[in-house]
Amino acid sequence: MSTSKTLLLGEATSSIVVLALAAVLLATVAGAAAAGDEPHTSTTANLTLHNLCPFPVWPLVTANAGLPGIPVDDDGEPVGRLAGNGEGLATLSFPSGAWSGRVTARTGCQAAEEDNGGGSTRGARCATGESPPVTVAQVSVGGPGGLAAYSVSLVDGFNVAVVVTPHGFAQGRRCPALGCAVDLCGARAPREGCGAGASSAAAFKQVCPDTRTNATDVEATPQDCVAPREIKVVFCPTQD
């Protein structure tokens, strides 16, 4: 199979995972409403992004279809360049109500001028490209009583190690850190990525059991997270 077909397959499968996560949250909300439980409400205030990689990243935060985007800055994106080695840190506010979306780490980005026919404009151009092997953090908040769900998907492959960690959650709930702190590409540059496609899924799962590697996969560690005040996405976390 050609590389382009493999990438398209990875994108399609990743979309299934994202839609499945959203469907589970929405079904839970509907069930709670029918049973007379608490209505859904967004009790999660912040999404924090922290870059511990030895190189800068340009996070891309994308809301699922039909949902409002995270408030943006002057560049039209929630956050721009995050410097490496722990210096890059950004705290964003979730929109009110139920929200779900995905976070990816782009690399090798720089501003590029282009002529759109009406004058020169500036836009981001990233070495990561449009559809590379990429690690995806998926987040849903605002379920019944503050229900939150999150995961790290390697369905599209791997480019940067990512771990998602909730903070300030309801007492007694299971809100573990989930994801992968291991550099699965080894010596390869993060902009290249690796492992898009089913052939790498078993190897990824063995090394990082708390990730999702196909459309029906779940983490080895269960979660039952309610009302976290913050969900933190860490790029290149330490392996302890």
TrEMBL record:
<dbReference type="InterPro" id="IPR037176">
    <property type="entry name" value="Osmotin/thaumatin-like_sf"/>
</dbReference>
<protein>
    <recommendedName>
        <fullName>Osmotin-like protein</fullName>
    </recommendedName>
</protein>
<feature type="signal peptide">
    <location>
        <begin position="1"/>
        <end position="34"/>
    </location>
</feature>
<dbReference type="InterPro" id="IPR001938">
    <property type="entry name" value="Thaumatin"/>
</dbReference>
<dbReference type="Pfam" id="PF00314">
    <property type="entry name" value="Thaumatin"/>
</dbReference>
<keyword id="KW-0732">Signal</keyword>
<feature type="region of interest" description="Disordered">
    <location>
        <begin position="111"/>
        <end position="130"/>
    </location>
</feature>
